[in-house]
Amino acid sequence: MKTIKLYREDVDLRQCDSTLLAAVYDRGEMTELGAKKQENTFLVVLDRTVFFPEGGGQPCDTGFVGDYPVFYVFEKDGVVYHQVSAPSTDIAALMRNAGLDDPETVRRPVHCQIDWNRRFLHMQMHCGEHILSGMFYQEFGGVNRGFHMGDDYMTIDINLEERPEFTEFTQEMIDRAELLANKAVWSNVPVTVLHFDRREDAAAMPLRKALAIEEDITIVCVGSPENPADCVACCGTHPKTAGQVGLIKIIKAEAYKGMTRFTVKAGQTAFADFVLKHRIVSALGAQYSADPTQLMEKIKVQENKNGAVRKELYDLKKTLISRQADVIEQIYSPGGALERGRAGAGSAGTDSIGTSAGSCSSEDSDGSVRILACGRSVPVVTMRYDYFSIDDLQTLGRRTADAVSGLLILVAERENTALLVSGGQPDCGKLVRENAEIYQGKGGGNATLARAIFSRAENLDTYLDLIEKHLR
After folding, report:
1. CA separation, residue 10 to residues 48, 194, 227 (Å)
2. Which of helix, strand or coil describes residue 183?
3. What is the pLDDT, as a whole number, of residue 87?
4. pLDDT at 370
5. Nearest Cα to 118, choosing from 3, 267, 271?
6. Alpha carbon distance 362, 408 (integer Å)
7. Is residue 358 very low, low, confident or very high in pLDDT (cuts 50, 70, 90)?
8. How far apart are CA 197 and CA 216, in angstroms?
9. What is the Cα–Cα distance from 94 to 110, expressed in whole angstroms?
10. Residue 347: pLDDT band by 50, 70, 90 thresholds?
11. Proportion of the chain in helix, strand, coil states, percent, rounded to 5
């Protein structure tokens, strides 16, 4: 027995009284019918329904059948199935206790109510899609080859195929279609839904698309049949007048499989989009002391200034990195601080970076450079920076990697991050993977270059101390 679809007769109907005919709770049967694979649910069949089932690119209605929340509605072979959430995990017991498992006791009156806000939004969006598609077709011969409705937007795939003079959309064409669509909304023309039993009768309408079905055909006509904004076969729900769509706004146009995919908002979603963007533009206008007509020019001027500052900063950092590379290469050069530290010749003055020549453990006056060498199989050089980012140190590490003997540790103090550099021995990546996590750190890399990242400075210091002791 096919379900009586009350929404076809009155799209504004929000509730109804129905008779429960059947309940389906066997998971295999539910899946075969087309239900969603969700636990603790079952299907109910009614003699009549106000719920629109998913179809034609439009999502289904939600709401309540009796006390049961309806979250999915679909149709198969003329029967509308309402998938509801159950209050119990033992569905079989629930069915028995409620008498829903027996055809003799399942029949009962139930009250149905849809989520009207959701329904009305879908009506606005779907009708908006019709009107805009109609304008693409009338003006440029663009054929709607795909339609999808999301929660707050829809996509329409238009193929320019009916008029050879149009091969691709220009911004002027898009703007014109959008304007004409909104003019149809402002004219508040009627939206008529007609039902035909036979293809021959429906084909007499001024259709935008050829019919693909032979019987039980529903035609939606926006405006008069003599001069429609759109006329096409559709099973969805639509408002009774175009004015209820409110507003149609194209958000984006992009190439898609040889067509143009338009992302569109209509009705409440278009209004919400305008409100959001108005707030953003107003805030930017206040920030740049400009009205909307001047805003982009003010932003462009500021971006040019920012670009000049970024270029200056880049050049300065490049110079600083070059100088630090020279310092590091001097440490590792013949006769440099590292070699003198290994020699263990005793205290003999102070070199250019503040280390005591010949000492086994040395650091400069502010502690930014630390050299551990004497009696070590793997010498360790640690250099700390409060003005370089870890990305800057990555550049510095790559530049000086060939000069490194042992382990070089470059520390970005503001980011609590250390960059380990070596010739492959010791394995920098291994030192990070096996030790950083002990002190709530993370990171990674390869044998010659690896990062160790910490949330706290003390954890970084403890980790570095561990590494130095580990390499004694």
Report:
1. 13, 12, 25
2. helix
3. 86
4. 78
5. 267
6. 14
7. very low
8. 5
9. 17
10. very low
11. 40, 30, 35
Sign of CA dihedral 223, 229, 232, 237: negative
**How far is it, in rounded angstroms, from Cα 396 to Cα 324?**
8
d(CA 95, CA 91) in angstroms, rounded, equals 6
Look up residue 241 and give its two tokens. 């007048």
Distance CA 470, CA 465 (A): 8
Question: Residue 344: its pLDDT value, please?
Answer: 53
Judged by DSSP in three states, 144 sits in strand
The structure tokens listed for 23 are 């309940």
| Angstrom distance (rounded) from CA 431 to CA 470 | 10
DSSP H or E run through 248: strand 248-256
Residue 87 to residue 100: CA distance in whole angstroms: 14
Report in angstroms the alpha-carbon separations of 109 from 17, 58, 127: 7, 29, 34
Note the pLDDT of residue 443: 95
Q: How many of the other CB atoms lie within 10 Å of CB of 362?
A: 23
Is pLDDT above 60 for 371? yes
Q: What is the pLDDT of residue 92?
A: 87
Residue 299 clears pLDDT 80, i.e. is over it: yes
The b/e string for 227-240 (b: 16+ C-beta within 10 A; e otherwise) is: ebbbbbbbbbbbbe
- The residues near 89 (Cβ < 8 Å, ≥ 6 apart) are 39, 40
- Report yes or no: 82 and 73 within 8 Å, Cβ to Cβ: yes
Q: 10 Å Cβ neighbour count for 187?
A: 13
The closest alpha carbon to 356, from 340, 374, 378, belongs to 340
Residue that has been written with the tokens 């503001």 in this structure: 414
Structure tokens at 263: 């992302």
Q: How many whole angstroms separate alpha carbon 252 and alpha carbon 376?
A: 64
CA 466 and chain centroid, separation: 42
Structure tokens at 28: 């295999």
Residues in a beta bridge with 250: 264
